[in-house]
Structures are given as C-alpha cells and as structure tokens.
Design brief:
The chain is α+β, with helices and mostly antiparallel strands. It contains eight helices and eleven strands. Helix 2 packs parallel to helix 3 and helix 2 runs parallel beside helix 5.
C-alpha cells in the first residue's frame, strides 16, 4: 500500500476528495483556493488553513508575525477568488507548557492583520497537545463574493496571457511572515477586467502554474527571463521557493491591463510571463510539496 509520501500532496487530495457527495448549493467544491457555496441569494467563500510550528514558522519566531501570517494566508485565498473577508474562527492546539503571553501575542498579530484588511474573529477552539509537541494554528474563514467577480482556477483559455503581481522568491528572508494579501488589487482587477483564471502563489510558481493550467485544460509556455525575481534571488529560487502570496492569473487584455495597472498601483509590479497554450507545456522543476 502506498504511503502519503509516495502519493504527494496533489495525489493525496485527489484521493481524499474522490466520491465526496455534493449538493446544488455548492458552486465551487474541492480543488480551488476556496469553496463557494450559495446561501440564500449570496455566494459565500469558505476556507480553512493551518500553520504548524517547524513547518510554516521556526520555533522562537515572534508570535505576532505568526498570527499575521496565519490569517493572511486565508485572506490571500479570498483575494484569489475575487472575494472579500468576513468572519473567522481560530483554533489553536498547544502544549500546556506554552506561555500564555505567546498566545495573546498571536492574537494581536491576527487582529492587526484583520484590522488592516477587514474581517472579524467570531469564535474558535483550543486543544491540548502532549508536552514538546509543535504548536498548530488553524484559521477557518467565511468571505463575501459578488457573483460577477468570481474567478476560479479553471477558466483559462489557450492564448490568454499569464501574469503575476510583485516579485518572487526569497520568502524565507521574512516575506512569508509579513506579506500583504492582494485583496485590494484583486478587487480592482475583477471589477475592471475579465480575468479567466486566478490563484495565489503559495507553493511556488513551478508548482502552482501547472495546477492552474491543468485545471483550465491547457498547457503553458513561459518566458523565464521575464519572471520577476526578488533582489539577490536566482531564477530557480523565484520559481520554487514558494510562500510568495502573489496573484497568478490569466487574461486576454494584456497591453490595456498593464497600462492601467501602472497608473493604479505604481509601487507594485505586474508582469506578463507567458501564455496558456492548447497543448504545449514547459517543464518546471521545484516548488513546495508537504509530503
């Protein structure tokens, strides 16, 4: 019998989601940045994400930065669907030896992020772990979504340009803890342009672009010399480091988009790095896989 490591993250998720029941209220199910569910006359975003000590942050890290990251990851997924933040539940699983101050500072970081980008904490859960266990923080969020602004991973078409916001790579130098989820930018994009597919870059361009292309039934071709690299970062690091939390999206209005973006967000780069294709697929190596 195969182990989880042999399956890999994508294979494991496909195995777990196979045959899951659904209802007519489910607009977007497993496999995208968020689920979308119809509630009355509204479409609601649902997302959960976990941050684990030793995996997503190092022991001894400032808990305020950990709290910011924990909730910002969920906000980044809301942005990737064209949505806005709503209500959040916070679950923490900790050892009884952890200082209370660490948790209160964690919450300060969460509140600071929500204070800047929107959203409120409405509840949560605490659980104990055996002494010496790594701390686990899980954030579940509900977001708001206008039907006309929904963007999924699966709408891309051959010939669409591929774009990324910001610069990539080097997240281990601190960006992975202090990044700004691109909510404002995603709102502007979805209000002014017809994006065909979008996701956030959490596992690295080399891992996430093939996912988007596959979901859209396309291949892709990228101009590697166009990939926007962070300072002192190699191309391979930009492709594979992960935890960039920038937007990756496709659109067929390239020149107009780039021109208007420069006027609206002069301090943030937007780069066309290639296009979706009918069948050709570049080879990309790298990216983060949990297993």
């Amino acid at each position: 019998m195969k182990t989880i490591g042999e399956f890999g993250e994508d294979g494991l998720i496909a195995q777990l989601c196979e045959g899951l029941p659904s209802t007519e209220r489910v607009v977007v199910g497993p496999g995208d940045d968020c689920a979308v569910v119809e509630v009355g006359d509204e479409w609601v975003l649902l997302k959960t994400d976990a941050v684990v000590e030793g995996v997503h942050y190092l022991s001894g890290e400032n808990p305020k930065r950990v709290g910011w990251k924990a909730v910002a990851r969920v906000l980044s997924d809301f942005a990737a669907m064209g949505g806005e933040p709503g209500e959040f539940l916070v679950t923490v699983a900790v050892s009884r030896e952890l200082e209370v101050r660490w948790l209160t500072d964690l919450y300060e970081g969460i509140k600071s992020c929500l204070g800047r980008f929107g959203g409120v904490i409405v509840g949560g859960e605490t659980s104990s772990l055996p002494v010496g266990s790594p701390t686990v923080i899980s954030i579940a969020g509900r977001g708001r979504l206008s039907r006309k602004r929904l963007v999924t991973r699966s709408g891309g078409k051959a010939g669409d340009g591929i774009f990324v916001t910001g610069v990539l790579g080097g997240s281990i130098n601190g960006k992975h803890l202090d990044f700004y989820p691109r909510l404002r930018e995603a709102t502007w994009l979805t209000e002014n342009f017809s994006l065909t597919a979008m996701m956030d870059l959490s596992d690295g361009l080399a891992k996430d672009l093939p996912r988007l292309a596959k979901a859209s039934g396309c291949g892709f071709s990228i101009e590697k010399e166009s990939v926007p690299c962070s300072e002192d970062v190699s191309l391979q690091e930009a492709l594979g480091d992960g935890e960039d939390y920038e937007l990756l999206f496709t659109c067929d209005q390239g020149s107009k988009l780039l021109e208007k973006w420069a006027g609206r967000f002069p301090g943030l780069r937007l780069t066309r790095i290639g296009e979706l294709t009918a069948d050709q697929e570049d080879s990309l190596v790298g990216g983060w896989d949990h297993f």
